[in-house]
Write a structure and sequence with these properties.
heterodimer; A: alpha+beta; six-stranded antiparallel β-sheet; 9 strands; B: about 375 residues; Elongation Factor Tu (Ef-tu), domain 3; six-stranded mixed β-sheet; globular
Chain lengths: ~130, ~375
């Protein structure tokens, strides 16, 4: 699996795509594979604040509930409502199935995230 | 999450096969078992395969106790709440071993192999406990209790096409074996194999008991997959096993039944024969029957968005805690979020709305009739 070079990644298997002051967030291909069939997603509403490293929602497979952790702090500007009725889109293409868009609070936080290469290595080592 | 080193987990003879198939392995009650096989299907596909076609499960982690001797029936009657005297040769039934308080040691399928020979198939997580319990409680009877769980690989073939699949592999007349009956026949060349029309999925199906060596087990598993190819058979893990039994409202020890839940609370009345002169737990059950139960098992369906999961609290409209969820999940065939749980009898009527506490929020669910799914009668 080639992880998009333009994304940055967390060790909790979220990705963030930064364009200017907007960050688009989702979970990685590795995460959806580990979860199995995703049947439910709980996301915040537009206007909500998210904090780097803190939970902003949950993703559920048939077997388990997993927290979603924000790669960076900010205010939610958009939520992918499609995932409420079609959560399986995350399994189909995790890097296209964005969850939330945020206005970034502090671009400095991005420095602590992993590059695509670093994330690939991290995933390989986990096994 | 604490990882148990796989070297300390018990393994069935089919463990190498599960790993070769890419099974996602988990620790299930101390056993290294596949929860699902991501390729070719994943849990949802496995579940649908069993409902629509056929699936195959390794259930060798389950235990087997054999009670043999001149007083085997009397001993079984003492231990088991159902009436083993009603079993014919070749017949099995669902029952339970109870504590004196009328609560569950374990649920069990009792098979009558002969007038002096009974086979009890028990849960994986309670194998040692059950064997100790049985051994101690048959002491006054002229019989022997043996733990034969390690002698068998147990394979479950389940689904509307299960008979056709197994039919290719055996000389036994499967059409003559009714639901909850069993026979012995040659399966994959193995003589005198126990073939039982039992299962834990709510579909038609069979469980076969073959020698527990790795080579034989792998060969039979492979032959089952080959025989099922034309029906797109899938290997199925414990994940699908759980969602299938939940849709069919079948109890799981540690959830709907346990050492603190009684037979009446769990609504298993029809498997408990109080007219038997004696069995462990009878006196307590008679008392509770007169007093009435404080809680009863109900089926729930989510009304608002959310999935009720094991252990979640149930609250009434005022936020008071009134019960809890014993098992809950997304149901792959019904495509709904369902659950089983305990509520006070006065609040257990079909249609009642209760709140499921999900991460601090009350999410509405309603009491529904069970089983949630029942296969069509042929």
């Amino acid at each position: 699996m080639a992880y998009p070079k333009e994304f940055k990644y967390t060790k909790e298997h979220e990705w963030i795509k930064v364009e200017g002051t907007t960050g688009t967030v989702g979970i990685t291909h590795h995460a959806q594979e580990a979860l199995g069939d995703i049947v439910f997603v709980e996301l915040p509403k537009p206007g909500a604040e998210v904090a780097a490293g803190k939970s902003f929602g949950t993703v559920e497979s048939v077997k388990a509930v997993s927290e979603l952790y924000a790669p960076a702090s900010g205010t939610v500007t958009a939520v992918n409502e499609e995932l409420n009725t079609a959560p399986e889109k995350i399994n189909q293409d995790a890097h296209a199935a964005w969850m939330i868009k945020i206005t970034l609070k502090d671009a400095g936080e991005l420095g602590g995230l992993l590059s695509a290469d670093e994330y690939e290595q991290f995933v390989a080592e986990e096994h | 999450m604490v990882e148990t080193a796989t070297s300390t987990l018990r393994k069935t003879a089919l463990n190498p096969v599960h790993r070769a198939l890419g099974g996602k392995m988990v620790d299930f009650g101390g056993w290294d078992m596949p929860v699902e096989y991501p390729a070719p299907g994943g849990l949802i596909q496995e579940h649908l395969a069993v409902r629509q076609r056929v699936g195959v499960f390794d259930v060798s982690h389950m235990g087997d106790l054999r009670i043999r001797g001149p007083q085997a029936l009397a001993a079984t009657q003492h231990l088991s709440m159902n009436d083993a005297a009603r079993l014919a040769l070749g017949q099995a039934h669902y029952s339970a071993l109870l504590y004196p308080q009328g609560t569950f040691v374990d649920d069990v399928i009792v098979h009558k192999l002969a007038d002096d020979d009974y086979l009890l198939v028990i849960n994986a997580g309670t194998r040692e406990k059950d064997y100790g319990w049985v051994r101690d409680n048959v002491k006054g009877f002229d019989c022997k209790a043996e733990d034969v769980g390690n002698d068998f690989t147990q394979i479950a073939i389940q689904g509307p096409r299960a008979a056709e699949v197994l039919g290719k592999l055996t000389d036994a007349n499967l059409a003559a074996v009714k639901n909850y009956w069993f026979t012995h026949g040659t399966v994959c060349g193995l003589k005198q194999t126990l073939i039982a029309r039992t299962g834990y999925t709510g579909e038609d199906g069979f469980e076969i008991y073959i020698p527990a060596d790795e080579k034989t087990s792998a060969r039979v598993w492979q032959e089952v997959l080959e025989a099922g190819k034309q029906f797109q058979i899938l290997p199925c893990g414990l994940g699908a096993r759980n969602t299938l039994r939940l849709e069919s409202k079948m109890a799981l020890y540690g959830h709907e039944i346990s050492d603190s839940i009684t037979v009446w609370e769990a609504c298993l009345d029809r498997f408990c024969k109080l007219e038997k002169p004696e069995f462990i737990g009878k006196a307590a059950l008679e008392r509770q029957k007169a007093e009435g139960v404080l809680r009863t098992l109900v089926g729930l369906e989510m009304v608002e968005r959310g999935i009720a999961r094991d252990g979640y609290k149930l609250r009434d409209g005022h936020g008071r805690e009134i019960g809890y969820v014993t098992s809950g999940s997304y149901a792959p065939y019904l495509k709904k979020n369902i659950a089983l749980g305990y509520l006070p009898p006065a609040m257990a009527e079909v249609g009642r709305t209760v709140l499921v506490e999900i991460r601090g929020q009350g999410v509405a669910a309603k009491v529904v009739p069970t089983p949630f799914y029942k296969r069509a009668k042929k």
